[in-house]
Design brief:
This protein has 192 residues and is an all-alpha fold. The protein is 77% helix and 0% strand. The chain contains nine helices and no strands.
Length: 192
């Protein structure tokens, strides 16, 4: 659930300008999954994604602190474009990428990647809202299975279900409720 103090890009920027470590930590956690996805889908590892993202956050942080940041888009879009460029350079250095990075910019449209990443980020946000509305024990059960990667038997023991089949049945019911909540939130945003 987002920290209310940093719910908007403007609040995050103000927090970083005021040297608030919570703002920087929140920013770091907020958009990392998007960058992890980018790097993993382009021959990268978790550690490489962490390195790339840390470099991008440092660049962003320094520009904010210097007052030289000209932000004409959302923070996540800005960070994505920095990470993408850094990753392309790293791939070029590792000889995994055919051609020179400057040549690749001619062929690759960053706008499409950013639009796709933005859409996925919005869907993740709506899914987070739906998960928050889901309630217990469904919320914890789904988080344990999909996020914590716990086995069905571990979840069965944790929740005190009689067997794994009952746990699977409960998980299925929880998924149906989550799906319904997600689409209700999605429809409500489309109507706005």
């Amino acid at each position: 659930m987002p920290n209310v103090l940093y719910f908007s890009d403007k609040a995050l920027l103000a927090g970083i300008q005021n040297e608030n470590e919570e703002a920087l930590a929140y920013l770091y956690k907020l958009h990392f999954p998007m960058i992890l996805h980018l790097v993993q889908n382009n021959n990268g590892t978790d550690d490489e994604a962490k390195d790339i993202y840390q470099e991008a956050v440092i660049i962003f942080y320094e520009k904010v602190r210097e007052g030289s940041l000209e932000l004409n888009c959302q923070i996540k879009t800005y960070l994505y474009s920095i990470c993408r460029r850094l990753w392309l350079k790293r791939l070029a250095l590792k000889n995994r990428f055919a051609g020179i990075v400057s040549e690749s910019d001619t062929f690759v449209e960053v706008e499409n990647d950013i639009a796709e990443a933005t859409e996925k980020e919005e869907q993740f946000s709506k899914m987070g809202e739906a998960l928050a509305l889901l309630g217990e024990p469904c919320k914890t059960l789904l988080e344990d299975f999909y996020i914590q990667d716990l086995s069905m038997q571990t979840i069965t023991d944790k929740f005190g279900y009689t067997n794994s089949d009952n746990t699977k049945n409960q998980k299925y019911k929880c998924l149906l409720r989550l799906k319904k909540l997600f689409f209700n939130i999605y429809k409500a945003d489309v109507v706005k």
